[in-house]
Amino acid sequence: MTTSPDSQALAERQLCGLVNGLAQRIAEHVRERAATLGLTASQATALREMSGPMTMRELADRMSCEPSNTTFVVDKLEKQGLIERHPHPTDRRAKHLVLTPEGAALRTRLLELLAEDSPLSGLTPQEQRVLHGLLEQVVTSA
């Protein structure tokens, strides 16, 4: 059975609407949780992605933004004493971003808050893995 162009367009529009709706709910969830910690959503996203020392470029990639935007966020986090810039161990042109003890503690609290009532918490771990796999397949094939 073939699908008409109109029905395929409708299905894609509906799916795009659902993905966009989920992205909006996740963004709002991050904003709300970040605000309780005195952070912006961008600062919270940076802390969430700081799973270990990394370069500005690596953090920008993880945050899905330009390095110049990441620099602005990191500057603010550095002023708050949450992130430090250290010499990169193998590239003298780059700096390694490292969480301070205060930054690591705040990141732990942030991750706890983000897990509470997450927009994805209505899915089982198995359903989350399936959704992850499907979304990854779509994103990497583009």
Classification by helices and strands:
mainly alpha
Distance, first to last CA: 26 Å
Share of residues in strands: 5-15%
Mean pLDDT: 92
Shape: globular
Biggest sheet: strand arrangement: 1-2
Q: Return residue spans where pLDDT drops below 50 for at least 5 consecutive residues.
A: none
Oligomer: single chain
Helical residues, percent: 55-70%
Largest sheet: 2 strands, antiparallel
Question: What's the gyration radius in Å?
Answer: 18 Å
SSE string: HHHHEEHH
Number of distinct helices: 6
Features of this protein?
2 strands; 142 residues; mainly alpha; two-stranded antiparallel sheet; 6 helices
Describe this structure in words.
It is a single chain. With 142 residues, the protein is mainly α. It is built from six helices and two strands. The protein has a two-stranded antiparallel ribbon with strand order 1-2. Helix 1 packs across helix 2 (41-49), helix 2 (41-49) packs across helix 3 (56-63) and helix 3 crosses helix 4 (67-79). It is globular and about 60 Å long. The model has no long low-confidence stretch (mean pLDDT 92).
Summarize the structure.
The chain has 142 residues and is mostly helical. It contains six helices and two strands, in the order H-H-H-H-E-E-H-H.
List the SSEs and their pairings:
Blueprint: H1 5-36, H2 41-49, H3 56-63, H4 67-79, E1 83-87, E2 95-99, H5 101-115, H6 125-141
Antiparallel strand pairs: 1-2
Helix pairs in contact: 1-2, 2-3, 3-4
